[in-house]
Amino acid sequence: MRTSAFALAPVGSGPFRFVKWEPRQRLEIAAVESFYRGRPVLDRVIWSYAPEMSTLVQKLFAGEADFFDMVPPPSVPEAASHPDVRLLPRGNFDYSFLQLNLFDGPSERPHPLFADRALRRALAMGLDRRALVRSLFDTLGHVLAGPFVRAQWSADTSLAQLPFDRAAAARTLDSLGWRVGPDGVRTRGGRPLAFRLLYPASSTNRKNMSVLIQEQLRGLGVRVELDGADNNAFVARGRARQYDAYFGGLIATPSPSGIRQTWTSDAAKPGGFNTGRYLNTAFDAQVDSALNARDVASAKAYYRAAYRIINEDAPAIWLYEPPQVAGAHRRLRTGPLRADAWWLDIPAWSIVPGTRLSRDSAAAP
Length: 365
Known about the structure:
Blueprint: H1 5-8, E1 16-22, E2 26-31, E3 44-48, H2 53-61, E4 67-68, E5 85-89, E6 94-100, H3 117-125, H4 129-137, E7 142-143, H5 166-175, E8 179-180, E9 186-188, E10 191-192, E11 194-200, H6 204-218, E12 223-229, H7 231-239, E13 245-251, H8 281-291, H9 296-313, E14 316-321, E15 325-329, E16 332-333, E17 350-351
Helix pairs in contact: 3-5, 4-6, 8-9
């Protein structure tokens, strides 16, 4: 299909027409003068390609590109030294979390640690999630409030969270019989309070935060052994439920109804996304009620109830929504960037009057 005539020279019915495509180098489209919703403001749009993220960023900073949809966080501070570049925060549907396996690997036996709801809650309270997110993303990231992202209409960031309270977490672990030993690690019945954290070695963000999590929990008397794996092995082991804790990441659906495929009991079946096998019929019932609600207000109330239940149960520790920042030349007017499709409003984008460059008005071939 990639080499078919249609793929190489497509015909569409949108506001732009195909002009030229040089694979892995350049793609050009031009305005359709007779488009039924009105001609696009821009004469043409050109995508250019580069194999490395750093090259793409430098094209924007050097003025060779006018828009880049994903400026990586490490490059954000440099943007301040380029007066012609402005940063545009945009929503996204990605979120990351620490998935706790409530069963002992792929078996049906309860996990010796994480089957205990009180222990899971203590671990969540022992992590300073705000400090974790700030260490990784400075002020750009957002602490996750539950199994949803702020771009979804059901999002409720006012939900009560398990607070960061290391003293309360320590008291809970003491009450459960986990006592601090001479080496600083808690034990109970001769078993250390220790687990392995599986993370994808290819993700710098998750790798770095895994180290921070390890250090924070060390102060609580919990030993975390880091287990980095290449992406294929990471995904395979996650699907096979061969882990204690799993540094997961999901892309939420624009509709909150996607939670049925990620956190309900149905999703805990073999092949489902709920690999930690969180099972709670009350949570499932609230999700079902939300999906069958006849109006938005009722649906929001049911989703809020579902989020409250899962947050209290702590089958996962909600960590962060990774920042998504676009960069644009100051002469380019874009308007708001939609979280689900930043490119949808390109026909309305424009160049500030009097700031056009020669390349802005050159006729398309």
